[in-house]
Amino acid sequence: MMKFDFIKKIIRRIKNIFRENKMGYKFPLFKVAEIEKDIDISKEAADDGKNDIPRSDSRTFSICENEAIAKCDALRQKEVSNAAEYLASIKNTIINQTAELGKKHFFLNNIKASVEQTITEAKGKLSPLWDSFKTEQRHVQNYKLEHKINREPHTLTMISISISLGVIAFLFYFEMKLNTTLLAPAMRTGGMGGQAVASAVAILNVFVSFGAGYLFIKNIHHVSSFKRRLAQIGLFIYTIFIIYLNGVMGAFRANAEAIKAVKKFGASASDTAAQAVAEQGSALLWFLGTVRFDVYPLVLTFVGITFAIASLWDGYLFDDRYPGYGKVGKKRDENSKEIERLTRAISTEKLSKFKKEIKDTSENRDKLIGQNITEWSKNVSNLENTFENYKRFADQLDDGIDHCIGEYRAINNKFRKTSEPKYWFADNGKMRTRYYDLAPNKKDPEKVFPSYASLYFKKNEIEQELEKYQNKITEEANQYLAELNAYQEETNKIVEDLISKYAININA
What distance in Å separates the CA atoms of residue 254 and residue 237, rounded to the nearest whole number? Predict the structure, then answer.
């Protein structure tokens, strides 16, 4: 409803503009006195009268009268030429706008082609993806049966990869910094040596433990007894190794504290003391109870073991907990996600196309009414005003010539000795009171400007055409929008069927 009000306001505004502003070519005001002065009509009339010119039996205008007619016609022809140039500048605009407003503006085939292309492209992508999904789904089902798994696989995603790698990076950095702080005072090479050893141990505790968790803990649940047993042995050996390695680290720190090579809270002792500690080997046999662990050695040992356990668990949770199961389901899940993305995208893209088409239709309708009709009306009104202005100009010429001839005859008759010329009288014998009439082909603008007559409309006809174009465009747009809505309902059913056909059901 608001749209129609807006359109009506535009039409009213257009009409008001043309009522308030008289456009078109403006013909000059005809000045009879100038013509009479230019040909010195008073003197010529008096001289002719004294010489009894024109003769009593004369049936044609005198030379002076013809000169007045010629002067006026020359002025008329000059203004006609100027007006024709003005009309030529708007002729093509009128023709083009008339053609534009008269043609059909809204075509359903365009949106049909676009939507059908979208649906066809989606089908072309979905079909092979669906075939691949079904193949991978069979692989997953076979793997589940073969390995006696009753759950779906957990596959890697960018988020899960980022979390796992982030945990590993944090554990490595934190352990390296802690180990460096606790080991450096007990090393002959100080901070550099402590950092090198701390980094090596952190790599074993974190990265190697991550790999051990990925390889050993996952395979503990393997359906194959050989792989299960091999994983158990490997995990046992690696566990002993990690405990021993971190125990050595703690024992090394404990020996340094025992001989006061380092003080409590990590304060450094003399280089000589550190050298003495470094040469002792009892730290390698700490498990025999030869080393007394204090607070810092215990912290060093248990932090390393704790980080190793955390890394083992992170490796175990990386990808699916059952070895190889995540890899089997990865391709299927990728296909599943892509199918879901495409089915969502086709609906979204189709809706977007229809929304854009509705918006473009409304804008095109408003543009045709607000701009094209305005432009057409303005120029057709210019043409109409030019024709009306010419009619007034021609009337002025007609009356002006008549006045000149009347003035000539009145003066001429005062000085004549003979009777008045015959052409001064009408057929009924009475003296003419109207001395000149401009020829119809010079007075009618449609005959004076024949190239523009077919484009000419009177004021009431312009308003009628204005209403006709406005109604045509509005009705055409409304009909098109109705067809567009019907086609949208039709495509909704097609898309719904397509989504239903490619709906993912993992448990099916």
Answer: 25
CB-CB neighbours of 247 under 10 Å: 23
Residue 175 and residue 206 in contact, taking contact as beta carbons nearer than 8 Å: yes
Residues 288, 290, 295: CA angle, nearest 5 degrees: 110
Closest CA to 443 of 83, 73, 86: 73
The DSSP-derived string for 284-300 is GGGGGTTS---HHHHHH
Query: Which stretches of 98-233 are assigned E, i.e. beta strand?
Result: none
Torsion of CA 140, 145, 150, 153, to 10 degrees: -20
- Whether the bond between 54 and the residue before it is cis, its omega within 30 degrees of 0, is yes
Q: Calculate ∠ Cα 241-226-152, nearest 5°.
A: 95
Pick from 238, 239, 217: which is nearest to 228 by CA? 217
C-alpha 86: how far from its chain's center?
A: 41
Burial class, 497, CB count within 10 angstroms (exposed 0-12 / middle 13-18 / buried 19+): exposed
**101 touches 310 (CB < 8 A):** no
What's the rounded Cα separation, in Å, for the pair 182 and 388? 107
Sequence spans of domains, the chain: 2-113+340-501, 157-318
Give the ranges where 318-372 is alpha helix by DSSP (H).
325-367
User: What residue has token string 């303005």?
Assistant: 378
CA distance 324 to 142: 13
Question: Looking at residue 275, what is its pLDDT?
Answer: 43
Q: Please give the Cα distance from 338 to 353 (Å, whole number).
A: 22
Question: How many other C-beta atoms lie within 10 A of the C-beta of residue 226?
Answer: 9
The answer to whether the CB of 282 falls within 8 A of the CB of 247 is: no
Quick check: helix, strand or coil at residue 62? coil
> Which DSSP state fits 56?
T
pLDDT digit string, tens, across residues 297-342: 777 788 888 888 888 888 888 887 888 878 888 888 888 889 999 9
Phi–psi pair at 320, nearest 5 degrees: -75, 150
What's 261's DSSP letter? S
Q: Are 485 and 361 in contact (CB under 8 A)?
A: no
In contact, 467 and 341? CB cutoff 8 Å: no
Q: Which residue has the tokens 């409590």?
A: 264
The rounded distance, in Å, linking the Cα atoms of 221 and 209 is 18
Q: What are phi and psi of 405, to 5 degrees?
A: -65, -40
Output the CA torsion 389→390→395→400 (10° steps). 100
Q: How far apart are CA 349 and CA 74, in angstroms?
A: 69
pLDDT (tens digit, 9 = 90+) per residue, 357-399? 999 999 999 999 989 999 999 999 999 999 999 999 999 999 9
414: tokens are 């005062």
